[in-house]
Amino acid sequence: MAREILRxxxxxxxxxxxxxxxxxxxxxxxxxxxxxxxxxFEEPELERMGYYYGKPQxxxxxxxxxxxxxxxxxxxxxxxxxxxxxxxxxxxxxxxEPQLHVMQPLVSAANFYGRVMMLPYMWGVRHPKDPIxxxxxDNPGSPVPYRKRYVPLxxxxxxxxxxxxxxxxxLLP
Length: 173
Hints:
The protein is mostly helical and 173 residues long. The chain has two domains: 2-56 and 99-171, no CATH class; 57-98. The protein has helices at residues 2-10, 44-47, 60-75, 81-95, 104-117, 119-125, 155-171; strands at 13-16, 20-23, 35-36, 132-133.
């Protein structure tokens, strides 16, 4: 029904505010039903959304420190050879602020090695052969707020983790 209405309306034009004619065109989209095996070492907030651990540098400290030099450069004549380069570099830093990504490799390494220790527990929470469908997940690059993702509580996972560490205690002297 809706498809037939759109086909008949596609030939007509709809006038919007400023008088530009826009033609209606039918657009059909179906959500992809893709699946994968469990991703035990995934960091979705970092990998999908771009949230990293660290403080962004907004340039307030840089501007406060170099303010006297900026005043001196602004007072110089336009023929001064360093003035143009100084303000080009300042504009570049204002446009592309440096980020403080020093802590992110350490946090990712701690996440990885902590999950290696918790791997039997995570196998108990979600079996390695169970498919995971990505319907309902946020798309990469979507503007979504930061979320903490926790490993759920599981009795089966706790039993597997205990068995693994008990077995390691017997294997290693």
